[in-house]
Amino acid sequence: MNTFDWLKRAEEAQPGSGTTTELLEERVIDALRTVFDPEIPVNIYDLGLVYGLDVDEAEGRVGIRMTLTAPGCPVAQTFPATVEDAVFSVSGVNDVHVELVWDPPWSRDQMSDAARLQLGML
For residue 53, what are the domain limits? Predict the structure, then answer.
């Protein structure tokens, strides 16, 4: 990102511009992309494990509905805390709630093109 792009984003993030929530959501997504599935070498966002993302800019609250690749995944008990920690690291986030859901079950169809390309499926 060049200096002009950085300045433009900083101006857009000024209160009252209407884009601060989008920028916080982008930063949260960036944080989610740092968390990798323990069995598949792809981040959880591009893998399609995040089913819902609710960002409240004013309160700094983030709600995440997500799943795992399989209900019997050995990290099912600890992985939500890993995701929470990654999102808590985002500036402006004060509260994170991760809800682990199993319906609908995850399938390869939920992966992004980037994930498919990374796994040699394109």
Answer: 3-118
